[in-house]
Amino acid sequence: MVNTHNMPPLTVAPRHNSLFVSLLLVLALWSLSLPAHAGVSIGIDTLRADGFAAVRGKRIGLVTNQTSTDASGQKDRVILHQAPGVHLAVLFTPEHGLDGTETAGAYVASRRDPITGLPAYSLFGSTRKPTPDMLRGLDALVFDLQDVGCRSYTYLSTMARCMEACGEQNVEFIVLDRPNPLGGERVEGPGIESQWVSFVGQFPVPYVHGLTAGELAKMTNANHWMAAQCKLTVIPMRGWSRGMTWADTGLRWIRSSPNIPRGDSPLYYVATGIVGNLAGLDLGIGTDVPFERVAAGYLNADSFTAFLRAQDLPGVHFAAYRGSQGAGSSLHADGHAPGNLTAVNVYLASALYRAGGARLFAKAHADPDQLLYKIYGSRSLETQIEGGTPPERIVAGWSAGVERFRRERQPYLLY
Question: Can you list the domains of the chain with their CATH numbers?
Answer without folding.
Answer: 43-254 (3.40.50.12170), 265-397 (3.90.1150.140)
